[in-house]
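Tutorial, part two.
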Amino acid sequence: MDVHYSNETHLWETPDDFFRNYDSEFRFDLDVCALPENAKCKNFFSPADDGLEQPWDGVCWMNPPYGREIARWMKKAFEEMKRGCTVVCLVPSRTDTRWWHDYAMKGEVRFIKGRLYFKRLDGHTGRAPFPCAVIVFRPNVTDQAERSDSLKPLVGHFFMFPV
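Running the prediction step on this input gives:
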């Protein structure tokens, strides 16, 4: 299980083809969690900008660090949706975690069939050792923001998408 929470690096770039498919659907304005070397949008927040402290606008792409800070990123994405942003999040499918139930289950969940291939800044590529999902937070979709805790596991939008 250590590989799932490895601290080796959390700087894995979103696969280009994967991103292009979602960009053709959503037309992203902002990559909220990127480095200059791997930003997927012209407008992006780098670690120096600290996307967790910035207001987000428009349609946002988020591939956050997959370490323990992911809960903070998912909370921020959910809060920015309530402010009017659409936020599309590429995250590990960790259905046993608190952040998954507190935030991911309140959005549209698109499970990804198979494992994604990611690359690091050092050029190393590899298949993710865990399943991933895309979570879509859309403003003005009342059931994601107002769903009662008792109904969360019963209500949801689930999709399967090939890699």
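The chain is about 20% helix and 25% strand. In part three we will examine how such features are distributed along the chain.
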